[in-house]
Amino acid sequence: MKQGKAKIIAAGGILGLLAALLVKFGNPVNMGVCVACFYRDIAGALGLHGAGNVQYIRPEISGFILGSFIIAKTKGEFRARGGSSPLLRFVLGFFLMIGALVFLGCPLRMILRLANGDLNAITGLVGYVVGIFIGIQFIKRGFSLGRSVNQPESSGYIMPIFAIGLLVLLAIQPAFVLFSESGPGAARAPIAIALAAGLIVGVLLQRTRLCTAGGFRDAILIKDFYFLWGLIGIFVFALIGNLVLNPESFKISFVEQPIAHNDFLWNFLGMVLAGVASSLLGGCPLRQTILAGEGDTDAAITILGLIAGAAFAHNFGLAASPQGVGINSKVAVLIGFIVIMAIGYNVVKYNEKARNDRKGRAVEGGVSHV
């Protein structure tokens, strides 16, 4: 048990240190790694939205996918599977991204922001835990998106090929790929360092199954704190890394934090939405990315939902900004709550009816046999 705790803390610690190191080498301050932000930047680079300050093909994403793919193949754990409510997963991924972009960061960046002194992340953290708690209530009542089934092996290779394709586009930089000249999209670590960091994280998280949503879900639902220790490892080692490597950017405050706003209510509600969606999906954006590298096409569909959400957010003014949260963002979050709650309620009722039908058929079969 002690060895297991040490292992998960070490994995989280390496992730936290790498995030601080990426900031040192040029990634956005108060970020280092943000899965939602990185998918948003990729969507912009591919021309899916026109926000010129957040357009770049982030090699870390390719590293996450390929690191997971390589170690899964090596360990015999790569398996193409999927078919578990793909459209619902797409919609949940879409609104997960909306919630994250209102907060201005994924659950991982929430921890990293806190490790750099951004106290607004506390509001986001409380919201994320509340969202997961809400999702747990649906799970207790029978929420499930269904079982995935084996699929042709070729379907499992789609996301690794996509990751390689992104690296090719990043290397040759054709005219149709867009790159920010200012703003967060222009803050970037050297490609080799970013890719290496992504590969390391991909390998570590594939082996440990570390997930921000899973950490809080297991602690609340079954009093299992294994993954939560990993999240603590991320925070502690990112904090140490920032103090040592990036002392000039470390500042404990609510105001004047990089790529953040201090609208407490919408920081809270944005992460509530992200928490509910992550718990119903069975994993945060980072976990979905790692699963996609293992051949999970349901996770790949979720990623497509994340990318679509990012494109939609920046095309229609749904993302927040350091200047605050606009009316479009607030309406989008409220619509997200309505849609996700409706999905949760409907799936619970459907699964309950399916269970009752199976019981009824079993009783009828027993009577006929008698």
From TrEMBL:
Keyword Repressor recorded: no
Signal peptide span: none
Transmembrane portions of the chain: 87-112, 118-136, 157-179, 185-205, 226-245, 265-286, 298-319, 331-348
Pfam families reported for this sequence: Sulf_transp
Keywords: Membrane, Transmembrane, Transmembrane helix
NCBIfam families hit by this protein: seleno_YedE
Annotated protein name in UniProt: YedE-related selenium metabolism membrane protein
